[in-house]
Design brief:
The complex is a heterodimer of chains A (262) and B (91). With 262 residues, chain A is mainly α. Chain A is built from eight helices and five strands, in the order E-H-H-E-E-E-H-E-H-H-H-H-H. Chain A has a three-stranded antiparallel β-sheet with strand order 2-3-4. The radius of gyration of chain A is 39 Å and the shape is extended. The termini of chain A are far apart. Chain B contains three helices and five strands, in the order ααβββββα. Chain B has helices at 3-14, 18-37, 83-90; strands at 41-44, 48-55, 58-61, 68-71, 74-81. The two termini of chain B are 23 Å apart. In chain B, helix 1 (3-14) crosses helix 2. Chain B has a three-stranded antiparallel β-sheet with strand order 1-2-5. Classes of the chains: A mainly alpha (262), B alpha+beta (91).
Chain lengths: 262, 91
């Protein structure tokens, strides 16, 4: 990415694609662009289908104009095809934009709170699993599992069903089930927690720009301050030099006239 | 000048068949496209540089209407002619 590809690499790429000798491919690429250049010098337009159009312009700084083929432009911009231009309403204040972004942030925080609750219930489940491993108080610990979680209910039913038959085998079977449920829950929670910041970032585009603007204005102020300091010093030095010259002239005048200085 | 004329002219200049020049031209275009997708620049001596750049999302302000538009990011393929070519144009 962002590399500068020389002609030799391009020729090698062409030779790899066609199976032709690299020197011959290089000669072809050179001939291709020299032909295009000659045609441009004759003020002709060279249209390469699927790539773009080279045409001569009257601009002396950039005498060749290149227009990308629309299909290639679409191919290049395929990763951003889902985005559209958005009109920002006219006359909207920065404060309003900030309040909108704050509302969005608070909504996302409330969603985070829900996630936190689900994560807490998952923690409760894991604690209960640890306690279930002790076979003496199986039935009591199972009641600690949060009833709001469906998978926890299923686990509880399994445990109560198994306790009647073989109490010794319960911990291994149930803990596995609970672990799977717990891992699924935790995975979902992790995925949701991971996805939330992305939404927050996308919804807070304008505050970031504000921050950038503030940083920029601070730099300007610093620059102005430094200029003020230099100006102040220059003025001070100039004033001192003028004062010294006046004092010397004053002294010589009174020495020559023989009068007292003060 | 279109692609067919270009192929014919190249085969004439290089002394190869039209099919061969077509295959090499298609391969060159495909290679250039691939480099462009990788956001690489291709420097062609005596002709110029084809460079591909990514422009981030930005707010464009229309000074006349006061309308602000948030534009999505885009990848732009541009061409900058070399000094040799520019001198040829100047004369």
């Amino acid at each position: 990415m962002n590399k500068k590809i020389p002609l030799r690499s391009l020729a090698e790429s062409v030779s790899n694609r066609t199976g032709i000798d690299a020197d011959k491919a290089q000669a072809f690429v050179k001939a291709l662009f020299s032909v295009i250049g000659d045609k441009l010098l004759q003020a002709e337009t060279v249209n390469v289908d699927g790539f773009g159009e080279f045409s001569a312009s009257h601009n002396t700084v950039e005498p060749v104009r290149f227009l990308v083929d629309p299909t290639l432009a679409d191919e290049l911009n395929a990763p951003f095809a889902m985005f559209n231009s958005i009109d920002i309403p006219i006359g909207i204040d920065q404060d309003e934009l900030k309040s909108i972004s704050d509302d969005m942030l608070s909504e996302s925080e409330s969603e985070d709170g829900n996630l936190q609750q689900s994560a807490d219930s998952v923690k409760e489940m894991s604690v209960a699993v640890a306690e279930i491993e002790n076979p003496v108080s199986e039935q009591v610990e199972v009641e600690h599992i949060n009833e709001n979680i469906d998978c926890a209910d299923e686990v509880k039913e399994e445990i109560s069903a198994d306790v009647d038959d073989t109490p010794v085998e319960i911990p291994t079977a149930t803990t596995e089930d609970i672990n799977t449920c717990e891992t699924q829950e935790s995975r979902e929670a992790k995925v949701e927690i991971y996805e939330e910041p992305a939404v927050v970032v996308s919804s807070s585009i304008i505050p970031e720009e504000e921050e950038e603007y503030v940083e920029y204005s601070d730099e300007e102020n610093e620059h102005e301050k430094s200029r003020f300091g230099i100006g102040f010093l220059l003025g001070l030095v100039t004033g001192l030099i003028i004062g010294a010259l006046c004092f010397v002239g004053y002294t010589f005048y009174f020495v020559e006239t023989g009068s007292k200085l003060f | 000048m279109n692609l067919t004329e270009l192929k014919a002219l190249l085969s004439e200049n290089l002394g190869c068949s039209v099919d061969e020049s077509e295959a090499m031209l298609n391969a060159t275009i495909e290679a250039l496209k691939e480099y462009a997708k990788e956001l690489d620049s291709v420097a062609i001596p005596g002709f110029g540089t084809l460079s591909c750049t990514k422009i981030d999302e930005q707010i464009i302000d229309n000074q006349k209407t006061g309308q602000k538009v948030l534009t999505p990011p885009q990848i732009k393929l541009s061409f900058k002619s070399s000094v040799v070519l520019r001198k040829k144009f100047v004369g």
